[in-house]
C-alpha cells in the first residue's frame, strides 16, 4: 500500500513524536529512565517490565472503547478487541494452570484495588463482615484497614472488618487465634494475601477455617502471583473460591488487575463477578493494558519465567542471609518469597530515615510497619524486594553486594543520627546534606551504587547506550 501523506492542517500534531511534540515530558521520561538505570530498585511491589509489554501498552488499542464483555458490547467495532480479551482470558488460565471448565477470569480491572472491591461487591452485601491480615502485621490496605479514629480503606467503610494477626514472637500468621476469632466474628469473606509477609500461606488450614461459617475464601495474590504462576509457591487455586491479583509485581506485566473465580462454586458467580466489574465498579476496559497483560501472561507460561521466579527466591534468601550475618533482625528470620521485612527498631532507627538515606544513595526501598509498631507514621522497618533486580539478571553474588550496600546505609544512618544530636528526621536530613563524615560516606555509597547498577541492562531498553545521563 502506498504511503498516505500526513495532513498539514490542525491534525498535523497527531503524527509528531513525543520528543518533538512535548520536549518537557520527553525530558521527564529520559530522567526516569536514567534514574531506574543508575539505581537499585528494591521496592517489593514494583518490577521492570519488558519491551514487548511496553509496546502493547502504548498501542492503538488505547483508542477503542468496549464497555461490556466479548460478544456483548455497548459499542460497535469491537471484533478485534473481543478476540484480544478472549486471548487474554485463555492465557491467564494457562499461565496459572487452570481448567477452564472450573475456573473463569475477568481481565478488565484497572488495578488490584478495583479488582478486590469488585470481588467484594460480587460476593457480599454492604456491612457484611470480612477478615483480612492486619495492616501493621503485613496486610493490605484493601483488606479492611482501619485505625482507632479512622476507616482508611473503602473496604472498611462499606464492610465490617476484623483483622487477624501474626504471632509477634515468630512473625508467622497465628492460625489458631484466627480460627477462634472467625468462630466468633463469622465473616462472610476470609481474605488471605499480604503486602509485607515474607512467608507462604497455609491454604488448606484457611479453607477449614472458612468452612466453619460457610465463608468465602478469597486470596489476593498480588505480590506473589508470578511465583504462583511459576509454581514456586503454594497454590491458592486448590482451596480458594476467588483469587485476585495485580499484574505488575512478580508477574512483571503492566499495571492492572485480574479476578479469577470458581465457575462450579455457585451457578451465578460468574455473572456476579462480571457485573461487579462493569457496570458496578468501573467503565470501559483499558484495551491497551489488556493487550499488555496478555503479553506478560504469555511470558509467564514459559520455562524462562520459572527460572526467573526460582531466582527471585534465591536472591531474597541471599539478601536475608547476608543481613542476618550482621546480626540484623528480620521478621520471621528469613523469607519464602520475593521480600524481606527488616526490623530496624533494635538499632534505634526508623524506616523513614533509612528510606530517605537510601533515596540519596540511589537505592529505592520503602519504609514499612513491623508487628508491634505504635505508629504507621514512623514505622520501625523497611521492606526489601528482589524481583526488579532479578529482572536485571542479578543473581546471588550481586545480592551479596546489594546486602553490603544496605549494611553500609544503616551504618551511615547511625552515624548521621549521632551527628544530628536528635532523632528528628529534619535534623537527620540536614546532616546527610551537609559536609560532615556521614555525608561524605553517603556520597561515596551513592557513587559505588551507581557504578554497580550501570553494569546491568535495563529491561525495556535494548540499547543501554541510548539512555541519556541526566542530573
UniProtKB/TrEMBL annotation:
Its cofactor is pyridoxal 5'-phosphate. The modification N6-(pyridoxal phosphate)lysine is found at residue 249. Residues 18-405 form the Serine hydroxymethyltransferase-like domain. Its EC number is 2.1.2.1. Pathway: One-carbon metabolism; tetrahydrofolate interconversion. SUPFAM superfamilies: PLP-dependent transferases. PANTHER family: SERINE HYDROXYMETHYLTRANSFERASE, SERINE HYDROXYMETHYLTRANSFERASE 1. This is glycine hydroxymethyltransferase. It comes from Rhodotorula toruloides (Yeast).
